[in-house]
Specification:
alpha+beta, two-stranded antiparallel ribbon, about 25% strand, globular
Amino acid sequence: MKYEPTRVTKPNGQELVYHKPHFYLSALEGWRRQDHQDWRAILHGALLHHFSPIVDAIAEQSGMREGPLWKVIADSICIAFLMVGKHRDCEQAAREAALSIVHQRGTPLYSKRSGFHDVTVYDPNDTQTVLQTHSFRLRGGCCRIFTVDDHSYCSTCCFLKPD
């Protein structure tokens, strides 16, 4: 992992410094190698270690509970793995790897609702012929943008009921 500090100046002038992790694509090669299973535990621990101070700071400043903040992080892990998997032509393995991290019960990253859904388009003349399938991330957490003035629910809000 490579770290680049991010400086944020609050409206009151206080400066906050966060160290956000940047994961190199090559670091995620582990999901293709069956002989190296502990990379998931190492990554899970690193994610907890690096995001804990950020979650603590946001919870303290915003008054939000930590659980919902961790679910937003779990959602972000899912979309990151999905995008990398699509880019590297190993989407199914990437999805499985993401779920192995966010579906671990008993950890802050646990989010049973975070996951994936496929939308498949079939040929109208031959319902056995798949024209295209696209994977989407299912969100388990809420960014709470609807609580900000002049904003409504985002299109992927987990609080919205399907049509």
